[in-house]
Each structure stands twice: as structure tokens, then as C-alpha cells.
Predict the 3D structure of the following.
Amino acid sequence: MKLRKLALAAFVGSMIALPGIAGADDEGTIKYRQSVMKAVGGHVGAIGSIAKGEGGSADHMKAHTAALADLATMVEAAFKDKVVNEEKSRSLGKIWEDWDGFAKAAGAMKEATAALAAAAAKGEDVGTALKATFDSCKGCHKDFRAEKKG
Amino acid sequence: MVSASAPRTACAARAWLATLTIALLGLGGAARAAETTLAERGEYVFHAASCAGCHTDVENDGAPLAGGRRLPTPFGTFVSPNITPDPTHGIGAWSEADLERALRHGEGPGWFDHYYPVFPYPSYTRMSGEDVRALWAYLRTVEPVARENEPHEIPWYLRIRVAAWGWKLLFFEPGEFTPDPARSGEWNRGAYLVRALSHCGECHTPRDGFGVSIGSRELAGSADGAEGKATPNITPHEADGVGRWSKRELREYLHVGMDPDGDFAGGLMAEVVDESLAHLRIEDIDAIVEYLVSLPPLPSD
């Protein structure tokens, strides 16, 4: 039992220590920011499903909108390291050339999702906040993400 | 406690459902109110045809339809003209027939005035006479702006419009859309929207070295689509296209911009959604979907 734990610790240690396997290398940087975005997409997809009555509940709605607002506060930090890789990532170099613009787009998402979560928590009309949230996604993707390839 | 709050929660949830569905499906907007006048119908055509995006210098907060947007192509950078009703700098001195000739034949009112196909008249040529008339009525109601046109940044041998004339002679087939009687009314409406008004193929169909859309590859995506950027394959191909998307997912993407992964459209498609598709009636979105899913599934190159 103890040996197993030790082996696991050694394995995790080596993963972090060895560049090229894991840790804060370029591949890891891309992976992390994409994971954050995937999580964002997951919550937004779930919110859409609840909206259409496909599943979930009012409590689920509160939880998803709160998680989305939380994630929004991580976007700027998740993209702070410049890594451009046309094959593995659709992040454009423009993100770091126009960091203020990118931070503003992330700010718009923070604001819109905070309003969305607040409205959902209070049981108020969320239509406007939801539309603003969608617009914040499109706004940043339009300027800072490469087009999807055929 | 539970019994007291449960009905309230259920009620609140229903309220959410209603507003969310409206927001998600974009069913609440004023643009979807029934059009009564010819100009109002023209505004709908104008949105469906996405005229505003190209003719407005969005990046520099230009006045609507006053031109100045730069459109990079493999042949150089074109600068869109002013199409407000200003008599000197716009098309205020034009007649309805002039607009019809421009849209249907790619020809201006001047002498030897042939347009380059960056102006997507190879799609607009298929517009119905009724839609052209309505569009003209709407364009007359736009605020005139006295903004002078800028020359295109293209090689000198393209600036004289012989090249545009030659291109049309070789590659351009004018002619109104003719419905396929073997298909449903919805399919034909979708085909008309995709191939004439919304000109999806101008971006999603690959072009050959002469800038001609390759008909056998309709909507199969392009490595250098509009403004030199990639566009995805939107045929119903399982692996390369949108074959795995349900009709409902396609409808949502087109009307709101959200894909099946909760991801949102970016690039020029975000503009197409915001400027054009979000303004359409849900029946028209469904017609587009009906047409898309009927296409032959093509693999990407």
C-alpha cells in the first residue's frame, strides 16, 4: 500500500519535472487553455439544453450559470502565455499583439456571465444576460480565433 | 420549507424556460414582425443577402452602407463602394433598373462598367424580381452619406475593367433561380436562400485559379475562402462536414451561433450570424437546414 503511494508520488513527480511530458511547456499551455474553453462550452451547452426543456432543473441552471461566471474569471490568465501553434491550436498571435483588446473581450464575458448568474440566482429574467453572454463568445472568437478549417 | 418553495421554483423555472428559449432561438426580435410595406420587405431581403457587412467599414466605425471596407482577395484588395442614396458619392442617382442590372449582370450604369465578382453577383443574379424591387425600395430609405469611394488596391491591368468583362464572358451565368418542381416548397426556399440571397457558397465553396466556384464541390469548404481565410465543409459528410449535426443543432448554429459542443461561431461566420441569419424568420432558417441536409456528402480535400 505504502509502496504504491510512493511509486505514484514518484511518477507524478517525474511527470511534472520532465519537460516534454507535462508541466508548463507549450503543449501544456495549449491544453490548459483549451480545457478551460471546453468547460465553458460544456456549461453553455447545458444551459441551452435546460432552456429548451431537454433536461435539468432550475437548480441546475443556477449551478451552471455560477460555474460559467467562475470560469470567466480564469480566461485572461489561461491565455497569458504566448503560444502560437497553427496545427494544435486556433489561438491567433493577435491575442498577444493586442493584449488590451483580448483582455477587454475577456472582461465582456466576465460581465455578461456575472449578470447571467445573478439573474439566475434571483430567479429573474435571464434573456438579456444570455444574449450578452453569447455575444461575448462570438465577439472574442471573431477577433482572436482562427477560422475552423474544412 | 420544501413544500413552500417547490411551486415557486417550478414557476420560476418555467419563466426561465420561456425567456431562454426566446433568446436562444431568437424568436423575439422586432425584425421578425410581419413586413407590410415594400421597403420593410426589402429590409428583410437586405438582411438575408448580408449587404451591410461588405458595404460598411465596421472596423473603423464607418457609417452604414457608406463603403470603405477592405476585402482582401488573391487578386488584390478591393474597397467596397458607397451604396447610400447620396447623389454624388452613393447610388442616389441610380434607378431601380440600374440596381437590377448590377445585381443580375454585374454591370454598372457607366460605360464599360463591369464589376469584379468580389461583389457576389454570381449569387445575386438568382434573386427574384420581387426581391430586387423590395431591396431597391429599402435602399432608398437609408441615410445618405457623402463619403467618396476609394480606388481598389489591385494591379493596373485589373483596374481597367476589361478583366472583369473577360471573367464574366468566360465564367458568369446570369439568370434567376428556378425552383425544382420535384422538391418541396421548403427545400426550394432553402435552395434560393443558400444559392441566391445568403450566398453561402461564396465562402464555403472552393474556387479554382480563376476565382470561379467549383460547382461539383458545392459547400465542401475551402482552404482560402473569403478574405483569404479557411472555411469549413458544411455538406452532410459524417467525418468532414456537418453530417453528425442534427437538424435542431444546425438551426441553432445558424440562428444563434452555438454549435453542438456549446462552442460559438467566430470569424466571418459570427458576422454572418449577427448581421444576417439572426434576423431571419425561423421558417427560413429551417428551409436552409432542409436544403443543407439534402446535399451530397463530400469529403474535404
About this structure: The first helix of chain A runs from residue 2 to 17. The two ends of chain A are 51 Å apart (CA to CA). Chain A touches chain B at residues 37-38, 40-48, 50-53, 57-59, 61, 120, 123, 125-128, 130-131, 134-135, 137-142, 145-150 (CB under 8 Å).
